[in-house]
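Before relying on records like the one below, remember that each one covers exactly one chain. Contacts with other chains, cofactors or solvent are not represented anywhere in the record.
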Amino acid sequence: MTADTPNESPDRQDPAQAASAPVAVIGGGSIGIAFAIVFARAGRPVRLQEPDETRRAAVPGLVAGKLADLAAYDLLDEPVDAVAARIAVVGDLAAAVAGVAYVQECAPERLDLKTALFAELDRLAPPGAVLASASSAITASSFAAGLAGRDRVLVVHPGNPPFLIPVAEVVPAPFTRPDVVAAAQAILSQAGLSPVLVHKEVEGFVFNRLQGALLREAYCLVRDGVASVEDIDTIVRDGLGLRWSVIGPFETVDLNTQGGIASHAEKMGPAYARMGAERGQNDPWTPDLVATVAAERRALLPLDRWGERVAWRDRRLMSLVRHRRSENPT
């Protein structure tokens, strides 16, 4: 692959060119490899930059192994070799970002490292390129506020691995340009991901705050002798997780209660408030908050279609249960 000259693009991306331009993935760890597969599977040329020579040598074999697994489950539309051929593994940062439309940084979760790395990316990448970090908790404001090109920096935090879990949190800083956010969403969507815009910078964003809330309670239940590690995993895997793989927590309680989510909040809100108080948490479901949530749910699902949606949920769960039984026959 012939590298173009860095910084040759205009300050704004041309949508047609951006749709076919190569992308750069910075870091050859598990998330970097996964992102490279996401973009290559969608037809994009990818330059995966990894500074460590030993790791760099290992990347092609790791990519090939994951692609072979995807092919075995009919999750590739092309032969493994065709997808792998789109991924060029390089050591030089400038060569990786030359002429790209989008940079996905996947370096370790260290503020000092990301600060230094984004200073280099801002200097080397074309002015029109989006600079995205796969940070799990560190905000773009923390590492990019001092950059001349800070208005093209944002966080794109994936589920792991993104070639199987398509959700990607798009988290702009207050200084990120709206057209950069739109360009990132378009590139992610074209790659088969499901971008979700996070409206405010908060540590951990949405994914890890939700996951963290469950983990905090799980640790407390083990500490207090309420349940074992295995039992908690069983409850999530065969209960909450099974249901949440079809619908999210708001729709879950909406469909669990006749009258919908407002009825659920009235019946269960006091008990959840007491559970939170046990952990020193005081975040009541106020009438205004419940009304806001209920209004959003009713816009998505009018109550006259509630029974229809419950039946849909049950059929989806039946499909999952059937699949589990076929994969693990007793």
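The chain is about 55% helix and 10% strand.
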